[in-house]
Amino acid sequence: MDETATLLVTGAAGRLGALVCRALSSAGRRNVVAASRSPERLTDLRVKGIEVRRADFDDSASLEVAFEGIDRALIISTDALSVPGQRKRQHRTALEAAIRSGVKHVAYTSMPNAEFSSAIPFAQDHQDMEAALRESGLGYSVLRNSWYQENLLAYLPNILRSGIWFTAAGDGRIAYVSRADAADAAAKVLAFGHGSEVVEVAGPEALTVEEIAVIIREVLGLSIRVEHVSQERLAVELARQGALPEVIPMVLGTEANQRAGHFDVNHDALCNVLGRPAKALADFFRTEMTMLLAPVRS
């Protein structure tokens, strides 16, 4: 792979994008461009010697400028979920700008089994973008990121405080991945990916809720009772436990998808990309022990 290739990361002000840029910098990559609709938030990356450009997915002119002279680009899926169709338009606008600008390879952050995951409201956006990449004529890498371990922090502390984990996931499995590992994988694929590839970016273990509860007992010393309920009951119990209203639909969709088996993917692929073991969920719990236990101790 050409070490002189110019690499661009969109969404660089976001949590994943910032980690990707830092991973590239730590690996000694030069000619890295960090792009964001809010470039003023990228001062720390600029200090590291990373070029900063403005890239607004709702402004095609800004994308034309951002992609100029770029050889390989990582398009991180946006968070525009409130307006139907906006996210799909944004992704397509970015891809079209990349094509017009002569980008040779595009990596894109998707999700596992988007074509089968009707329980996830935004799965169709990923399915459409994957199809657009296949039809683009470019080299591409689809990074099918599993759900992040950090997502659990949005509602697991309330579950730990109550002592009961209400779930509609049945015995479905999910391989939670750390955001840092996903970022390291994205950095490697952006720099070295080739041809047309799909990479399952999943954690090292596909676990049921019952198995996660066992890990919680072993790591945090808390005994959690798992109670299997309907989706309707789950929504009620999550609200009762204090989950934010915007979190509840995501948990419901996640557990429905998990129950259907669509998160149980190849969890060895990430280790092969990283060249090292991926972070296990038990290690994540150890790292975040203070935050997880704070509601219990309050």
Report on the structure:
With 298 residues, this protein is an alpha/beta fold. The protein has a domain at 7-146 and 179-201: Rossmann fold (3-Layer(aba) Sandwich). The protein has helices spanning 15-26, 43-47, 60-66, 86-100, 123-135, 156-162, 179-192, 209-220, 231-241, 247-259, 269-274, 281-287, 289-297; strands at residues 7-9, 32-36, 51-54, 72-75, 105-110, 139-145, 164-167, 196-201, 225-228. The strands form two sheets. It has a seven-stranded parallel sheet with strand order 3-2-1-4-5-6-8, with helices on both faces. The model has no long low-confidence stretch (mean pLDDT 95).
How do you describe this structure in short?
This protein is an alpha/beta fold.
Helix content: 40-55%
CATH topology annotation of the domain at 7-146 and 179-201: Rossmann fold
What is the helix/strand order?
A: EHEHEHEHEHEHEHEHEHHHHH
Oligomeric assembly: single chain
Shape estimate: globular
